[in-house]
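Most newcomers find our protein records easier to grasp once they have seen one. Each record describes a single protein and holds just a pair of labelled lines. A learned vocabulary of local backbone shapes supplies the integers on the structure line. Nothing more is needed to start thinking about how sequence determines fold. The record below serves as our worked example for the rest of this section.
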Amino acid sequence: MDPIKDALDLYDAGNVNEAVNHLMENAREISEQDQFSVAELLQQWGFLDEARRLFEELYRTYPNDHQIKFQLADIYIDLEMDSEALELIESIEPDDPEYINALMILADIYQSQGLNEVAVQKLLQAKELQPDNYLIDFGIAELAFHHGEFQKALDHYEKLEAHEGEFPFVTIHERLAECYASLGKWENALTYYQELELKEPDQLFKYGYTAFQLERYDIAIKAWNDLLDLDPDYTSVYPYLAKAYEEEGVMESALDILKQGLKKDEYNIELFINIARIELKQDQLEAAKSHLKEAIALDPGHEKAIIELFSIYESRDDWDDAKKLVEELMKFDAYPEILDWLAGQVYNELEEFEKAKNSFEKAYLTYHNDADFLKEYGYFLIEEGQMNKAIQLLKDYLIQNPEDQDTKEFLHRLQGGI
């Protein structure tokens, strides 16, 4: 009887729990070498507690066996038993041949604790002892990559290109592509992405996004359509794909892809807004207004949707509908502050000046540093005869926009007339 072979047969047949039970029941009846293999197998299958028990028994028998220590420490890390892992690895002395591996495992432990600087120190210490050990470069690169230090990661990944394929869960060229993309070096990133066989949705999204940044919309469209073939529920890609179609001038495809996205995520307000934006470009005014109203119905405080619909009314001097929109939304206790500004505009256009004044005064509390607001409110106050306050607002505006000669000359004349 071969317990390992029998367990593998059970596992392959889908009887995972039976396979694990069979291994544990027979663990003491097999050789210690086979016990090590069983523990490794359980670890690979994700049964960490069972693997831990077997490795701990082996460690009690062979306390100086570093391979057992390393395997056990790896399990302890996965089980968040960091203190136990540290105790194991720190027992390995600097003059031990396995000290380099110990330093690398210590780096893993400290990284798992969020002590990235200490982890880096351990890796650099290992690098000093073995400067040509590419596994150390990999460790430094991975640590920097996950810590957002993409240039540092890039420097070390570039040393590893000759070892592509040697790391079971990491593709070096993909890491290089991601580093270059994160650094805004889109051409380099695209080159590496094009060398990869991209099968995962996230990979295809990043590839498409890189191409999009380079205005290679044909590549982006192909990548993102391939993504949706794999995962139609990857809803974040729909607006990007629509934008790529739009940039290529294929407006019907842009609109169609957004509507497909809406079927997958009917509460996605950004999709409603983007649909409306394209419908406006196609002179589908009523459809655009309808989609924006649906967006606002889903979230009455969504500032972008409110501004988009308000802008439609504003561009067509439809101030009555603009007033209805603003007043309806301001019935909510926690309405967005932009509505105070919009209300000021509406009431001013409808010559309800006292209401406009009150709305602008309230909006000033929020937008006293917004150049566009300062200019608009300043000109309104001139019409109201509040010259001193208007002059101050326009001065504040010109500090941010000193190139506005028309306002500068107007202010000069205004001050000369006081």
